[in-house]
Design a protein that fits this description.
Layout lengths: L8 H10 L6 H24 L6 H16 L4 E3 L1 H12 L1 E4 L2 E6 L2 E7 L4 H5 L6 E5 L2 E2 L7 H8 L6 E7 L7 E6 L1 E4 L3 E6 L4 E6 L6 H14 L4 E5 L8 H9 L7 E7 L2 E7 L10 E6 L6 H11 L4 E4 L7 E7 L5 E10 L14 H5 L1 H8 L15 E3 L6 E3 L8 E2 L9 H8 L3 H19 L3 H7 L4 H13 L6 H23 L2 H8 L4 H11 L1 H8 L1
Helix pairs in contact: 1-2, 7-8, 8-9, 13-16, 16-17
């Protein structure tokens, strides 16, 4: 699978020499000469340098510097970082299968993963983990990273937990056998109304296409006619996952994306006849956080006039990376090609002015006014393309430009909300509330529909949250509180719903007040407006 994301000297030499094969003799000799030059440098430093040096670190620093000179997405990944980086894309890790939080220096189970080893062993939400393998973990200042190290491990290995549970006088002992725990890339899937289905993806991982197809089938069973695919904030992942998702929306023999590079021949990826949703209307939601594989999906749908793209200009990453393992377990992620949308657009934004300028691009969009006005975006005529069926104007060279622009909300002041989250007040407040009210909530609201209609965040709950914020020295004015009061109501209710059910229920609540999604629904509600933008 090709990635589209954001050692020792001996292993570095082996890596370089491996690619000598297949090059021209002249070029191969140049690579050998430069490799020997670096090898001589390391030998000289080791033999004659005045102080002791860490040769491994010296080589790693050199590799990092070389890759930084190439492009923003070619990177060196140390052996310690490789596993953590790959887990979200591979779709699973081995562990005990719980969602947890550290509440007042105590490790609390927020939820057990359905079908996971902890659920099978009988752990419950609100259980406190006091000991892990006879080591006390309560009241010792553990961090999330410490918990991961203790609870994750190889499949089939055992871990002993001592649990404090409400209503039990003694600690309860559990023997958990670690197993593969799935990491889902589909956050939500549900019917917004009787005709429109909604799917939100957070990344493009190894099992994303399977999750998408499963969601698509369930929505079709519920008589879905139109689809909203939410890719906002989705930074990408595997190209193959993006291709398989587009394939579900296209008829046979349509070009989805092609790659091309100096050392790699052009490769076309074309749709099959297996698409499950070839005819219904489609709207893709994007924003400045949508990158890479998200741009492959939205670019293909836009280029073939298969649907509309709604939101704000995407990130602008049109480079393909391959991962090359090194002998010590480290890895190099190297850009090997550009990818192009079906019209031939490369949507990679410029990076010739250095890494810092590249990283500042989103901030510059805010400062230039682009986030509030589409007219503030200025692209060269050379970047203009026409869609393949209706010949609509589209652009390359800096992300996917939406067909329908929706500005960011600059009227609201989210400062107080953000401070409550950053100072770790908001989520512990919800955890404490759930800890005290979980059984009552489950009894009173047996299903999400009842909860959504009848449950409300009271004024007393908000006052308690504000009081806890004051204790944590989160300063605010009355104006700042009133600006986020309704947002707090919505978000707290959504987090409670996620705790009681799942991510789909969380998004059913937060999406009730969403400018980009509301605009998409308005367009689908008026077939003439949809066709107007499309043609």
């Amino acid at each position: 699978m090709r990635l589209l994301n954001s050692t020792t000297s001996k292993s570095a030499f082996a890596f370089l020499l491996f690619f000598v094969l297949g090059f021209s003799q002249t070029h191969a000799q140049e690579v050998r000469d430069q490799t020997i030059k670096y090898q001589n440098l390391i030998a000289l430093v080791d033999a004659f340098y005045v102080d002791s040096v860490n040769l491994e670190k010296l080589t790693e620093d050199a590799i990092i510097k070389v890759l930084a000179e190439l492009d923003p997405h070619s990177v060196y990944i140390s052996k310690d970082e490789v596993k953590a980086m790959n887990e979200p894309l591979q779709g699973s890790f081995s562990g005990v299968g719980i969602q947890f939080n550290i509440l007042r220096d105590t490790l609390m189970v927020v939820a057990t993963i359905p079908g996971g080893p902890s659920e099978k062993a009988g752990l419950r939400a609100s259980d406190r983990i006091i000991k892990i393998d006879d080591e006390i973990v309560a009241g010792v200042g553990m961090k999330n990273t410490d918990v991961f190290k203790k609870l994750r491990g190889d499949k089939g290995t055992k871990v002993n937990l001592a649990i404090q549970r409400k209503g039990e006088k003694e600690l309860l002992d559990f023997l958990i056998i670690r197993d593969d725990i799935p990491i889902y890339s589909l956050d939500a899937s549900y019917m917004i109304n009787k005709n429109v289905g909604y799917i939100k993806l957070n990344r493009f991982a190894a099992k994303t296409a399977e999750e998408f197809i499963e969601a698509l089938l369930k929505l079709k069973e519920q008589k879905m006619k139109d689809l909203i695919l939410d890719l906002r904030g989705n930074g990408g992942g595997y190209m193959t996952a993006a291709i398989k998702i587009v394939d579900q929306l296209f008829v046979k023999d349509q070009l989805i994306v092609f790659t091309d590079g100096l050392k790699s021949k052009r490769h076309d990826n074309v749709s099959t006849d297996q698409g499950l949703f070839k005819e219904g209307r489609v709207i893709v939601l994007i924003d400045e956080g949508s990158a890479s594989a998200s741009e492959i999906v939205s670019g293909a749908i836009q280029d073939w006039d298969r649907g509309l793209v709604v939101g704000r200009r995407s990130f602008g990453k049109g480079l393909v990376q391959r991962q090359f393992p090194l002998s010590d377990g480290a890895m190099i992620r190297l850009t090997t090609a550009h990818y192009y949308t079906p019209t031939g657009r490369c949507i990679q934004k410029p990076y010739g002015n250095g890494l810092m300028d590249y990283r500042m691009d989103i901030i510059n969009r805010y400062n230039s006014g682009e986030m509030v006005s589409k007219d503030s975006i200025h692209l060269a005529d050379s970047l203009k393309y026409k869609t393949l069926l209706n010949e609509r104007l589209v652009y390359g060279g800096g992300g996917i430009m939406p067909d329908v622009f929706v500005p960011i909300d600059t009227t609201a002041n989210f400062k107080y909300f953000n401070l409550l989250a950053r100072k770790n007040v908001l989520y512990p407040f919800v955890l404490t509330y759930m800890d005290n009210n979980r059984d009552n909530l489950k009894s009173k609201y047996p299903d999400f529909e009842t909860f959504n209609k009848k449950f409300n965040i009271t004024e007393d709950m908000l006052k308690e949250l504000v009081a806890q914020g004051d204790e944590a020295k989160v300063e605010h004015t009355e104006e700042e509180y009133l600006a986020v009061k309704e947002l707090l109501r919505t978000h707290i209710k959504a987090v409670i719903a996620r705790d009681l059910w799942d991510g789909t229920e969380f998004y059913q609540i937060v999406n009730q007040k969403n400018d980009i999604l509301d605009r998409a629904l308005e367009i689908l509600d008026d077939s003439k407006e949809y066709e107007k933008y499309l043609k």
